[in-house]
Amino acid sequence: MKRNFSISVDMSKLKNRRARHDEHYQPTDMEHIANMLTHGICIIPSLYGLKTMHERASSPTEVIALLIYGMALFFLFTTSTLYHSLSFAGAKGLLKHCFHMGDRAVIYVFIAASYTPWLLLKDFGGVSHFFMWLVWVMCVLGILYQFLFHSKYKSLEVIFYLMIGICPAYAITHMTDPSGVQELAIGGIIYVSGVVFFKCDGIIPFAHAIWHCFVFLGAFSHFYAINTYLVGKHGATQGSFVSNTA
């Protein structure tokens, strides 16, 4: 006698409903935990990565570049973890609002900081100065947007993230030494692919935690590229942004 076994999964425990235009997405408890863990486990490795890069740095310019990138990476994971932890704990009002804004704003800082080591330490045929200003001005404008229109225009917010992440990449066409471009491209593709899940909160279970995993993978690809092609290779920092502006 054959028996048919079926497993019923209560989807309400895995994902919440889709948020309306005028409200924030509220994860389920299981999603809260996943959101905390997927970035929380990256905090210590990000500090260790900063330490190892700093120890290998061969010039003051490398130290500056790595501190900017490493601290941005650390604050990205830390701010995200703190925000999701406060949300899970039921925090409301100004505290939660400030950390939510910080969680979104630090993404702009991290994108700009990810470009900074390359613009400081690679030769871009004299356009490093322009692209350095471009990426950080876009970062400041993105942060101002967060303070003025926090989560009001959600699709526009994603467009801003993509613009600051993709547009300055045109600088790659001016690189005199293309080493590391493959890893940069892989990391960029991972980040952009993850945006799909970033916009699927309330549609795909654990969508935000999956987005966190894409961020980790993209950051690892870029960290590998920086540690392999930039750290310890610029004693005199030839062709760097600092040298060009001194």
From TrEMBL:
Example of a GO cellular component annotation carried by this entry: plasma membrane
UniProt-annotated binding residues for Zn(2+): H84, H208, H212
Entry keyword set: Cell membrane, Membrane, Metal-binding, Transmembrane, Transmembrane helix, Zinc
Question: Which GO molecular function annotation, any one, does this entry have?
Answer: pore-forming activity
Which Pfam families would you find in this protein's record?
A: HlyIII
Localization in the cell? Cell membrane
Transmembrane residues, as ranges?
A: 63-84, 127-148, 155-173, 179-198, 210-231
Give the matching InterPro entries.
AdipoR/HlyIII-related, Hy-lIII
PANTHER family from the UniProt entry: ADIPOR/PROGESTIN RECEPTOR-RELATED, LD03007P
Name of protein: Uncharacterized protein
Question: From which source organism is this entry?
Answer: Dreissena polymorpha (Zebra mussel)
**Lineage, please?**
Eukaryota, Metazoa, Spiralia, Lophotrochozoa, Mollusca
